[in-house]
């Protein structure tokens, strides 16, 4: 029977279902109970750090953060790992996509997102629905810090991802994030490599690690973890590589805490 000492869990499509922008009221309580048992918990998301802190407010100082699809890892408000896109490469992608009418573009720094919005709706969505820390720039070349990720937003990302992966997949990591998002990061920068970094830092073997997710950007994380858990409503290909498939993360957390799974938590 495996003893799980670290859980890395995706947000959108996993803890946040059907476009939700707030966690269920009992989620943080369940996480706190697992933390009390000695389990390490990491939010693993394409979202930025300040956004994740707001979502996990009751336990924000007790958990770790794999942010921006694994390009930024933060513990106790300190960035302990950052994978930076080569600036000319990042700006090339941002400017190419921004010239196309079907996309909006978000350029991410360590804790802030930068946009040149084509529509008020995009700004409103990020600022007031997703509640990102956001700055508007006249040109992406004006971004005042290292760039960790470039994201395309729009309905066509779901059908165009093959095109972008074929064009840039050899140079960088390209993956679909939450609905309507396509993310570009430095080659080898993903949730899986970030989870490996965290596990090694904590002297944990993959067999002591669990990863939970639903989508394209969770593959590397589930492949690394000794116990990979996929959402039943997630990507079919992800379910095929998973050890377990679940319907609702919170119910699964309850099962772990109550010893109803073929897994154990520290006593």
Topology:
Elements lengths: L1 E2 L2 E4 L17 H10 L3 E5 L4 H7 L8 E4 L4 E4 L2 E5 L4 H12 L5 E5 L4 E3 L4 H11 L3 E3 L12 E5 L3 H12 L3 E5 L4 E6 L4 H11 L7 E5 L5 H6 L2 E5 L4 H6 L2 E3 L2 H9 L5 E2 L3
Helix pairs in contact: 1-9
Tell me what the structure shows:
The chain is an alpha/beta fold. It contains nine helices and 16 strands. It has helices at 27-36, 49-55, 87-98, 120-130, 157-168, 191-201, 219-224, 236-241, 249-257, and strands spanning 2-3, 6-9, 40-44, 64-67, 72-75, 78-82, 104-108, 113-115, 134-136, 149-153, 172-176, 181-186, 209-213, 227-231, 244-246, 263-264. The strands form three sheets. The chain has an eight-stranded mixed β-sheet with strand order 6-5-4-3-2-13-14-15, with helices on both faces. The protein has a six-stranded mixed β-sheet with strand order 9-8-7-10-12-11, with helices on both faces. The longest helix has 12 residues, at 87-98. It is globular and about 55 Å long. It starts with a strand and ends with a strand.
Kindly summarize this structure in a few lines:
The chain is α/β, with parallel strands linked by helices. The chain contains nine helices and 16 strands. Helix 7 links the parallel strand 13 and strand 14.
């Amino acid at each position: 029977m495996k003893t799980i000492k670290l859980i890395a869990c995706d947000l959108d499509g996993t803890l946040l279902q059907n476009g939700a922008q707030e966690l269920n009221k009992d989620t943080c309580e369940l996480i706190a109970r697992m933390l009390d048992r000695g389990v390490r918990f990491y939010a693993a998301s394409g979202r930025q750090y300040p956004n994740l802190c707001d979502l996990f407010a009751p336990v924000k100082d007790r958990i770790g953060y794999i942010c921006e699809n694994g390009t930024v890892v933060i513990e106790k408000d300190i960035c302990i790992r950052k994978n930076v896109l080569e600036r000319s490469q990042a700006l090339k992608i941002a400017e190419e996509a921004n010239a196309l009418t079907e996309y909006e573009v978000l350029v991410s720094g360590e804790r802030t997102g930068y946009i040149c919005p084509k529509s008020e709706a995009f700004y409103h969505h990020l600022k007031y629905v997703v509640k990102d820390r956001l700055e508007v720039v006249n040109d992406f070349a004006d971004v005042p810090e290292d760039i960790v990720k470039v994201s395309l937003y729009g309905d066509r990302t779901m059908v165009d991802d093959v095109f972008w992966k074929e064009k840039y997949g050899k140079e960088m990591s390209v993956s679909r994030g939450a609905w309507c998002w396509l993310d570009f990061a430095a080659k080898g920068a993903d949730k899986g490599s970030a989870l490996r970094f965290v596990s090694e830092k904590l002297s944990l073997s993959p067999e002591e690690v669990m990863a939970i997710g639903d989508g394209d950007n969770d593959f590397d994380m589930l492949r690394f973890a000794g116990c990979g858990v996929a959402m039943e409503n997630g990507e079919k290909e992800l379910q095929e590589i998973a050890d377990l498939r679940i319907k609702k993360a919170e119910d699964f957390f309850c099962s772990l805490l109550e010893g109803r799974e073929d897994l154990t938590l520290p006593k």
